[in-house]
Amino acid sequence: LRKLTKQWQPIIQKRKTAKIGPELYQCPKCQDIVYSGARSIDVIQQEHPNARVGRMDVDHIEPIMEIESAGSAKDWNKIIARMFCPSDNLQVLCSICHKEKSDKEKTGRAAVRRAAKNG
Ligand SMILES: [Zn+2]
Predict the structure, then answer these.
(1) Alpha helices, DSSP H, located in 19-94
(2) Are the CB atoms for 43 and 75 separated by under 8 Å?
(3) Which of 16, 38, 76, 98 is the most exposed place for a label (fewest CB within 10 A)?
(4) Strands (E), 4-119
(5) In what order do the strands lie in the sheet with 33-35?
(6) Distance in Å, CA 46 to ligand 1 centroid
(7) How many angstroms separate the Cα of 74 from the Cα of each of 61, 64, 69, 87, 103?
(8) Which DSSP symbol is given to 21?
(9) Half-sphere exposure (CA, 13 Å, Cβ side) for 74?
(10) How far is the CA of 115 from the centre of ligand 1 (A)?
(11) 5 CA to middle of ligand 1, Å?
């Protein structure tokens, strides 16, 4: 299912508009210039000295899996609706920032689940 979101137009559009050059992005969180193309980074660095090689992910600002309802049964309709969300809930982050955010959300859900179990 997550693979399908790669075909979701708002996600494709978001990725496009985040580009500052061919396969070149700036992460809005860490401000890193990230290059995800096939050329040598040396060539890119002539114009952007701080550029690094990396991957950019399209992140759901409001996560697909709601944190507050982590303790209750999964509502797939809701999950799907959140997955295929409008573009204003999307941002393009470098994979490092994206992982950081996802990990935080994971920790949040685990805490909610624990709290639900303990009543
Ligand atoms: Zn970043």
Answers:
(1) 41-47, 76-83
(2) no
(3) 38
(4) 19-21, 24-26, 33-35, 52-53, 56-60, 90-94
(5) 19-21, 24-26, 33-35, 52-53
(6) 21
(7) 20, 11, 8, 24, 19
(8) E
(9) 8
(10) 31
(11) 21
Contact 20, 94 (CB under 8 A): no
Closest CA to 36 of 61, 15, 17: 15
Cα of 30 from ligand 1 centre, angstroms? 4
CA of 77 to the centre of ligand 1 (A): 31
**What token pair was written down for 43?**
């060539």
The DSSP secondary-structure symbol of 72 reads S
**Residue 7 to residue 4: CA distance in whole angstroms:** 6
Beta-bridge mates of residue 52 = 34
Average pLDDT of the segment spanning 74-84: 93
Around 45, how many Cα atoms within 13 Å sit in the side-chain half-sphere?
8
Tokens of 8: 């979701």
Q: How many residues does the chain have?
A: 119
